[in-house]
Amino acid sequence: MPQRPLKVVILAAGKSTRMKSDTPKVLHKLAGVPMLQWVLDQAAALNTVETIVVVGFGGEQVKEQFSHHRALKWVTQEPQLGTGHAVMQCRELLADHKGDVAILCGDVPLLRARTLNDLRETHAEKKPACTVMTARVPDPRGYGRIQRDKKGHVTRIVEQKDLQPAEDTNEINTGTYIFDAPELLKRLDRLKADNAQSEYYLTDVVQMLVADGKKVRASVVSDHAETLGINDRKQLAIAERRARRRICEFLMVEMGVTITDPRTTYIEAGVQIGRDTVIYPCSVIRTGVEIGKRCEIGPFAHIRGGTRLFDGCKVGAFVETKNAVFDEGAKAGHLAYLGDVSIGKKANIGAGTIVANYDGEEKHHTSIGDNAFIGCGTVLVAPVRVGKNAQTGANTVVPKGKDVPENTVVVGAPARELKKRG
Q1: I want to staple 283 with a disulfide (CB 3.0 to 4.6 A). Which of 144, 298, 333, 394 is the partner?
Q2: How far apart are CA 190 and CA 179, in angstroms?
Q3: CB-based contacts of 311: which residues, under 8 Å, 6+ apart?
């Protein structure tokens, strides 16, 4: 079905009042990335010609954190007087647009691309003035209710605080829409704030369109959990659990990764893991990590951003890595901290090894060569280099700048050469 050019408006001006936070709501992280990033990914899935983000509370902070998204258009809503008022601030950017406008909520991060594409396909097929995404939920409290006529057509949306008993239903407004842009713009100036919250409701545009004889259609979501809005820390935790489950399912089903217990495995958004890698319980893998094929992770491993594992590596129980590069076949089996380090092919890191990368002011890098053997309890004080095929004895301390030559065994604190390694 041919689709008209689409602009997206993301409503991201929330104050974090119920979050009880000084951080703008859309900057709170979900599976390791800001909530707003999830919604920007939704916009990208719609193949938009332009994405507009409406900010308010902490707007400069939001813009700064997303400054790398150079194509975004930013609009400020000040004061925040409702969803209709937010869209009013975008009139100049929408004035010459003859296609469609999608309205997305910056605090509804779990919508899948296929769900949004269903919304767009419904809009393209039915050609209404507005298509609203709805969901049928067990507990509709707090949400606007969808009102339909006897033929099942959408007639209006009633906000919770304005709801009359006869209007109650379990079909809710998710806050996600596609409008015909000119039809939307014609009605924005007619919005009034004569309601319980003294705000300009975007939902009132739906009733105006119906009154003017325009069609309004609904696209009902099959899984209402996707439409969860995040207003407080409890809802954030619920969304976190669902996001992590989705990530684990994708890795297992689509990428061929074995996750022995997804319930206790914490993998954040954007992590890349190759096939036939096994992840054991209680492991944490954070955003910005790349793991190759046939690796073994955990249990109780903590793999932080900047870590890259080539094929066949092992990061075992109670090992923490950060900005660590493991070349093919490198292993750290137990109880180690490896930060700002490159580890060569088939190198072995013994239990209790510490890479002391921070001197109190700056982080420094450590290099461990191919086939090196780092003995139990070794401390490598960065910056330092351990050469190929070198070895440290148990409880060795290698001071900063005191590199260990290739094919050399060192022991003691501070390290001293014991012999050459054959």
Answers
A1: 298
A2: 16
A3: 274, 292, 293, 294, 295, 328, 329
This prediction's pTM: 0.92
Please report, as a single letter, which amino acid is at residue 74.
W
Specify the DSSP element, H or E, that contains 252: helix 233-255
* Integer Cα distance of 387 and 421 in angstroms: 11
Task: Tell me yes or no: is domain 247-420 CATH 2.160.10.10.
Answer: yes
334 is catalytic: yes
Point out the catalytic residue in the list 69, 153, 334, 365: 334
Mean pLDDT, contiguous 10-residue spans, the chain (422 residues): 89 90 96 97 94 96 95 94 95 96 97 96 94 95 90 90 86 96 95 86 94 96 94 96 97 98 97 98 98 98 98 98 98 97 98 97 97 98 98 98 97 95 78
Secondary structure E strands in 247-345 = 258-259, 266-267, 272-273, 278-279, 284-285, 290-291, 296-297, 302-303, 308-309, 314-326, 331-343
Tell me which of 3.40.50.300, 3.30.420.40, 3.20.20.140, 3.90.550.10 is the CATH number of domain 6-227: 3.90.550.10
